[in-house]
Amino acid sequence: MESTPGSSGTYHGRMAAFLTIGEVAARTGETRDTIRYYERIGLVPKPVRTEAGYRQYREGIVNRLALIRNAQRFGFSLRDITRFLGVRDGGGKPCHDVRAAAQRMLEAADRQIADMIETRKRMKATLKVWDAKLAATPPNQPALLLDSLKSESGSRRSRSVPRAAPTRRPSSGRPRHARGG
């Protein structure tokens, strides 16, 4: 039986259900570009190809892509996920490495939270100083609030100047260059 995209076909003498890249994209919500990218970096196995060159993925690809998406949402990088799944696909057990990496991410999050709490305290203190400065400044004169940051900071800039922590956009699981389907 000849395999065509979206049909069931014979693979190494047994019947297997295959999905086209479009079907995989529709079932998972990932773009075709993302699926191809994951294939290129080794995150998903290379699919079987029809004689015409169409990709045919096994049903397991849907679960694999869900696992990747969930791991990214947790905070793992694609590089980490690729490494963990590579070990697993090779018959190894990356469980302790996964746990250790998750612990490091938690510790990093705790440090960020502590930094944000300190930043918030500095901002509140600065606002209190600014309120007093504004109250003491005649209405027709500038209070030069930003200039006071420079003069307050001196050589201890990181402690005196409230700085917002960089924000990280939630990952969609897609590479930045992937668009559309």
Architecture overview:
This protein is of the alpha+beta class and 181 residues long. Among the domains are: 8-74, Multidrug-efflux Transporter Regulator, Chain: A, Domain 2 (Orthogonal Bundle), CATH 1.10.1660.10; 115-160. The chain has 7 helices and 4 strands, in the order ββααββααααα. It has a 4-stranded antiparallel sheet with strand order 1-2-4-3. A hairpin with a 5-residue loop joins β3 and β4 (55-58). The radius of gyration is 26 Å and the shape is elongated. The model is unreliable at 1-15 and 152-181 (pLDDT under 50).
List the helices and strands and how they pair.
Elements (H helix, E strand, L loop, with lengths): L7 E4 L2 E6 L1 H8 L3 H9 L7 E2 L5 E4 L1 H15 L3 H12 L5 H42 L8 H9 L3 H4 L21
Antiparallel strand pairs: 1-2, 2-4, 3-4
**Binned strand content:** 5-15%
| Structure summary, number of beta strands | 4
Low-confidence runs: 1-15, 152-181
Give the overall silhouette: elongated
* Cα distance spanning the termini: 29 Å
Class by alpha and beta content = alpha+beta
Assign the CATH class of the domain at 8-74.
Mainly Alpha
Instruction: Predict the CATH topology of the domain at 8-74.
Output: Multidrug-efflux Transporter Regulator, Chain: A, Domain 2
Q: Biggest β-sheet: count, sense, barrel?
A: 4 strands, antiparallel
Specify the helix fraction band. Answer: 40-55%
- Mean pLDDT across all amino acids: 82
> DSSP helix count?
7
Cα gyration radius (Å): 26 Å
Lateral arrangement of strands in the main beta sheet: 1-2-4-3
